[in-house]
Amino acid sequence: MKDMLRNKILSIPFAFFLAAAVFFTGCDDNGTGSDGSMGTMTVEMTDAPIDSADAVNVFIERVEVQAQDSEGEEGEWIVLSEPQQSYNLLELVNGATEVIGTKELEPGIYEQIRLILSTNGHSVVVDGTEHSMMVPSGAQTGIKLNINAEIQSDIEYVLLLDFDASRSVVAAGQPGNAQKYLLKPVIKASEKAITGNIEGVVNPADAQPVVYAIAGSDTLASTIADTTSGDFRLIGLEEGSYDVSVNPRVDSYQSATVEDVTVQTGKTKDIGTVELNQQ
């Protein structure tokens, strides 16, 4: 896989997914709560992993949301947070998340969120060598995602951003020491309150398994199982039925699939132990 990342140029466009939002009541015609109290938006980030890199570091300057005005038109951008720091996406796997912003907001509809990335400070580590990553565009105007979130008085709205590292890191130029990498963020946004999770254990753990949640022909979540315990956790899944595919990175083991795993909102489905057979 590392050779594939070094030698193949991936032409992946920005792919932002619109998540379903839970709509609340309790707002007056001006979009403010009838009792004048505020709501809260919290943004958490997680990662769909890449097994061909040792680290993927992304520097986030600001997180902003855009309000909808009383006439339904696009409003001002509001700064949710200013992290001014780098995040290693490969540390945010197997159910781990990082809060990158939280703020009290006036009740109402917030149509978009955007991440303002630095023009530099991004890097990928491949085979122990760190390579800088350039953002081709979007650093100035931000990486925008539609969320259509409605904030209610005294309610915390938690937004989960799944940063797909495997599709966001793009190799360009000639392989070798002069290999160049681009950062083209592919992010899925979902409201945490209306999603569920799948967890389990892969045996043996030293098969170094990657676990995928698949609905139809679409892979909607992935993670690398813990290489010591074999534990895994797939988060941010909408309610529905999934096939859980376990693919070992050690060639002496066979893949396995658990079919028709049902996910319910607000719950974690434990599928137990998935045994991998040797070739």
TrEMBL record:
Protein name according to UniProt: DUF4382 domain-containing protein
Q: What keywords does the record list, in alphabetical order?
A: Signal
Q: What Pfam families does this protein's entry cite?
A: DUF4382
Q: Where is the DUF4382 domain?
A: 39-185
Q: Which domain of life is it from?
A: Bacteria
- Does this UniProt record's set of keywords contain Signal? yes
UniProt signal peptide: 1-25
Q: Where are the transmembrane segments?
A: none
What species does this protein belong to?
Fodinibius salsisoli
Q: Does the keyword tRNA processing apply?
A: no
